[in-house]
Amino acid sequence: MSDLFLIAVDGSDAGKRALAFGAARAQAGGARVLLAHVLEWSPYSFLTREELAERHMRREQEMARADAAFLAPRKAELAALGLSVETVIRYGHVADALCDIAKEHAATQVFVGRTGQAGVTARLFGSVAGTLSQIAPVPCTIVP
């Protein structure tokens, strides 16, 4: 059984670097790739029943759009390189969702890009890369 590399992608330059680095490592080591895209969502909002229904519908639309416009083209690019690629889209807190995905799919390594944010917000709330380095259930490569 080959390794499964979970590569977090979000369309940012950092995500593109993580994708390129993780794909190169997968090619070199014969690993399979799981591309993950997480749509951030805060559970700390209070909505009416109607707002919840509309929000659920919007989520479905956003996930379908993210898959068609973002993940499917990346999957095709990696498949053209001869890699075995699966994709997954989730809603939620990015670091927590990536950890859940890694556990559910038995990933052996996580690749994530680092944006280099160093402002007050990053200090107060942390970054995805920083949080993953502390809570990831498998080795995590943070690509600068």
Secondary structure blueprint with pairings:
Blueprint: E1 4-8, H1 13-29, E2 32-40, H2 49-80, E3 85-92, H3 94-104, E4 109-113, H4 120-125, H5 128-135, E5 140-143
Parallel strand pairs: 1-2, 1-4, 2-3, 4-5
Organism: Roseicitreum antarcticum
Pfam family, one: Usp
InterPro entries: Rossmann-like_a/b/a_fold (IPR014729), Universal_stress_UspA (IPR006015), UspA (IPR006016)
Explained architecture:
Belongs to the universal stress protein A family. Residues 5-144 form the UspA domain. This protein has helices at 13-29, 49-80, 94-104, 120-125, 128-135, and strands at 4-8, 32-40, 85-92, 109-113, 140-143. Helix 3 (94-104) packs across helix 5 (128-135). It has a 5-stranded parallel beta sheet with strand order 3-2-1-4-5, with helices on both faces. It has a single domain, classed as HUPs (Rossmann fold, 3-Layer(aba) Sandwich). The chain is built from 5 helices and 5 strands. It is α/β, with parallel strands linked by helices. It is globular. Helix 1 links the parallel strand 1 (4-8) and strand 2. The two termini are 30 Å apart.
Features of the shown structure:
5 helices; alpha/beta; five-stranded parallel beta sheet; 144 residues; 22% strand; Rossmann fold
Strand content of the residues, in percent?
Answer: 15-25%
Domain module count: 1
Structural class, by secondary structure, is alpha/beta
Mean model confidence by pLDDT = 88
The separation of the N and C termini measures 30 Å
| Rg calc | 16 Å
CATH architecture assignment: 3-Layer(aba) Sandwich
- Spans of at least 5 consecutive residues whose pLDDT stays below 50 are none
Q: How many extended strands?
A: 5
Write the CATH homologous superfamily.
HUPs
Specify the overall morphology: globular
Oligomer kind: single chain
Largest sheet: 5 strands, parallel
- SSE order, as H and E? EHEHEHEHHE
CATH C-level class is: Alpha Beta
Number of helices: 5
Can you give the helix content as a percent range? 40-55%
CATH topology: Rossmann fold
Strand order of the largest sheet: 3-2-1-4-5
